[in-house]
Specification:
With 312 residues, the protein is of the alpha/beta class. It has nine helices and 14 strands.
Length: 312
C-alpha cells in the first residue's frame, strides 16, 4: 500500500491547530520537526535519551508531517488541508511560511519513519509514556506507565502542553475523584488521571476518530472500568459535578469553555487548562478569573502556558 506524506512548514504557534486539521482529514500519524529540540538544554533526572540528527530539522519554524493512504481524492484532500491551514490566520494564529509539499512512500517506509520518532519518554517523576511496540520495565515501584499507539490519533503525550497537564493532574487528582477530560484526543490525560487514583473519568471529544482512538488506548491500558469515552461538544449538556476538569485545547476554545467549566467543577475543585501560547496568556487568565476561579499555579514550558485554577 502507498501513502502520501504531507509536509507543512509553519510555526510553533500553529502546531496544535494544524495537527487537528490533519487529524480531521484522515491523517494516521503526525510528526513534528522543531529545530529547538537540537539546542534545548535537557535535565536528565528522568533518564531521557535523545539522539537527534540536525538534517531532520528545518533552519527556522517547524515542519509538521502527516501520512494518508493514496486514493483518488488525495488532490481534493490536500487542497482542503491547505485551505484549512490558511484560514487559521483569521484566528490571529501565525502560520509562518505555510509551505506544503507532498511525497509518496511505501507502507513499510511510513511505519519506519513514524516509529523512529517515538520511543519511551519519562515526562515526570511519576509517568513514562511508552509506545505499544516498545519493551519497557519501570525503574521503580512508583513509576506509572501509559501505553499509547500514536498512529491511532494525534497526540503522543510528549508535547509540552500535554506534559504540563499531566504534571498538573499529579498536583490535583486525589483518590476516588471524578475527572472530566475535555478534548481528550488520544485519551492520554484520562489515562493519567485514572492511574493517579480517579475512580471515574469522563473523556470527551467532538471528533469520532478521536473517540475511537481514546477508547482503544483506554482498553490498551486496561482502564475501561474507570474511564468512559463519549462524543461531546466541550461541556455542553453536562450535569455532573467534577472534582477536576482538564482541557488541553486552543486558547480561543478555553475562553469559550470557562463558564461551563465553572458550572461543572465542584466548589474548591480544579480547572486545568493548557494549549495556551504566551501571547494569549493574559486573555485566558482573565476569562478563567471572570468565571469564578482563582489561579493557583501557572506552568510554563517552552512557549506554552498552563493554568491550575480552583473554583471559589
Amino acid at each position: 500500500m502507498k501513502w502520501t506524506e504531507i509536509s507543512i512548514h509553519t510555526t510553533n504557534e500553529a502546531v496544535e491547530p494544524i495537527s487537528n486539521i490533519l487529524h480531521e482529514t484522515g491523517a494516521s500519524g503526525v510528526v513534528i520537526e522543531d529545530p529547538a529540540e537540537l539546542s534545548k538544554e535537557r535535565v536528565d533526572q528522568f533518564g531521557e535519551i535523545y539522539d537527534l540528527n540536525p538534517a531532520d530539522y528545518p533552519d527556522d519554524g517547524v515542519i509538521i508531517k502527516a501520512y494518508m493512504p493514496v486514493n483518488s481524492f488525495m488532490i481534493e484532500t490536500i487542497e482542503a488541508i491547505k485551505q484549512g491551514v490558511t484560514d487559521l490566520s483569521s484566528f490571529d494564529i501565525d502560520i509562518g511560511k505555510n509551505h506544503v509539499t507532498t511525497t509518496e512512500v511505501n507502507e513499510e517506509d511510513w511505519a519506519t519513519a513514524w516509529k523512529k520518532y517515538y520511543t519511551p519518554v519519562k515526562i515526570s517523576e511519576t509517568f513514562t509514556i511508552v509506545p505499544t511496540w516498545e519493551e519497557y520495565e519501570p525503574s521503580t515501584k512508583e513509576e506509572l506507565i501509559i501505553e499509547l499507539d500514536p498512529g491511532m490519533a494525534f497526540g503522543t503525550g510528549t508535547h509540552p502542553t500535554t506534559v504540563m497537564c499531566i504534571q498538573a493532574l499529579e498536583r490535583t487528582v486525589k483518590q476516588d475523584d471524578f475527572v472530566v477530560d475535555v478534548g481528550t484526543g488520544s485519551g492520554v490525560l484520562s489515562i493519567a488521571a485514572a492511574l493517579l487514583g480517579a475512580s471515574n473519568v469522563m473523556a470527551l471529544d467532538l471528533d469520532e476518530v478521536a473517540v475511537k482512538a481514546a477508547r482503544e488506548n483506554v482498553e490498551l491500558n486496561q482502564l475501561a472500568d474507570q474511564i468512559t469515552v463519549k462524543k461531546s461538544d466541550l461541556l455542553h449538556g453536562r450535569a455532573e459535578r467534577a472534582d477536576v476538569v482538564v482541557a488541553n485545547i486552543l486558547a480561543e476554545v478555553i475562553m469559550k469553555l470557562t463558564e461551563d467549566a465553572a458550572k461543572t467543577v465542584r466548589k474548591n475543585g480544579y480547572f486545568i487548562t493548557s494549549g495556551i501560547i504566551q501571547q494569549k496568556k493574559l486573555e485566558v487568565k482573565d476569562a478563567i478569573i471572570a468565571a469564578g476561579f482563582d489561579i493557583e499555579e501557572t506552568l510554563v514550558m517552552e512557549d506554552w502556558v498552563a493554568f491550575i485554577a480552583r473554583r471559589k
